[in-house]
Amino acid sequence: MQLSDFINQALKFIERGTVDRKSKFRLPILASYHENTINQRIVIARKFDGNDNSLIIFTDRDSQKFNELQRNESCSLLFWDAGKKMQVYIQGVAEIMDEDSRVLFWKNLSESQKKDYQIEPPPKTNIQTHNDYQFKDTSDRFCCIKIFFKSMDILVLSNNGHQRAIYDFKSQKQDWVTP
Ligand SMILES: Cc1cc2nc3c(=O)[nH]c(=O)nc-3n(C[C@H](O)[C@H](O)[C@H](O)COP(=O)(O)O)c2cc1C
Predict the structure, then answer these.
(1) What is the pLDDT of residue 94?
(2) How far is the CA of 157 from the centre of ligand 1 (A)?
(3) What is the 156 CA–ligand 1 centroid distance (Å)?
């Protein structure tokens, strides 16, 4: 396979993850960094933009990840598809999206999806029992974050020889590297 096809294929799979509920690339791991600690969690890949190579995720403004990304925009996304034996590691920069985009995405959520951003008290508050929380009837904690891709590291495992390539989005430099 040509190097450019290998790279474009990985981006197509990321895009597919935002529209196909069965895609293994729907649920990347998002890592952020705060006070010498790396924190990771699964998020849903919501929208990919091939023009600026970015991925949108939704979260709660009161979550740890929001606070970390607000303080330090550097982050990473890790995708793994066991069927395709493909790992894609993205280093990126997070930007909190504006109010218009936030309102637009909120409108398109179902009532049950909205509840994920309305839990009261806010995430990680100690509670007495497992269900000792309620739902607030507002959208003010819902937030959209756009992660701009800086670099990509693709690894495909194969009995015929593993393949690995790296890509820098700014310089558009692409290279095969040893796996
Ligand atoms: C399958 C799955 C999908 C998830 N999707 C999201 C998501 O899109 N946005 C989000 O903020 N949290 C999502 N979560 C919850 C996070 O993984 C995490 O537990 C939570 O947001 C708290 O993370 P934080 O304390 O690091 O902010 C998801 C969890 C799972 C298991």
Answers:
(1) 98
(2) 28
(3) 26
Ranges assigned E (strand) in 18-141:
29-34, 37-42, 47-49, 54-60, 74-81, 86-96, 119-120, 134-135
Token couple for 91: 């280093």
For domain 3-177, the CATH class is mainly beta
Token duo for residue 114 = 């909205």
Residues 87-98 have pLDDT tens digits of: 999 999 999 999
Establish whether residue 58 lines the binding site of ligand 1, counting it when its CB lies within 6 angstroms of any ligand atom: yes
Judge if the beta carbon of residue 41 lies within 6 A of ligand 1.
yes
Q: Does ligand 1 have an atom closer than 6 angstroms to the CB of 38?
A: no
Q: Flag whether pLDDT at 138 surpasses 90.
A: no
pLDDT of residue 73: 98
Measured in Å, residue 146 CA sits from the centre of ligand 1 at: 16
Pocket of ligand 1 contains residue 78 by CB under 6 Å: no
Q: Delimit the domains of the chain by residue range.
A: 3-177
Identify residue 130 by its one-letter amino acid code.
H
